[in-house]
Design goal:
Blueprint: H1 39-46, H2 60-73
The structure holds zinc ion.
Length: 74
């Protein structure tokens, strides 16, 4: 039968948080400035576009369009 058990993430360091050397946002190579994000992606994080892990929100595209519109209006 199907095994629906979630695989536990194991990064081999006992669950201790490692401060990354680069921005948490996927594919970003900037050095983090705030909360493990570069300046740009920290704004994304504050706007709810990405999670603390740098993963895009489910409705990222919609949120991003709103975000761009607000940026233009500012
Ligand atoms: Zn970044």
């Amino acid at each position: 039968m199907a095994d629906n058990r979630k695989k536990e993430k194991n990064n081999g360091n006992g669950g201790a948080k490692v401060i990354p050397m680069i921005c948490q946002s996927t594919g970003c190579k900037e050095r983090p400035k705030r909360a493990n994000f570069c300046n740009e992606h920290f704004i994304w994080y504050k706007e709810g576009l990405i999670t603390t892990e740098g993963v895009r929100a489910k409705d990222f595209d919609k949120k991003y369009q709103h975000f761009l519109r607000r940026q233009k209006a500012a």
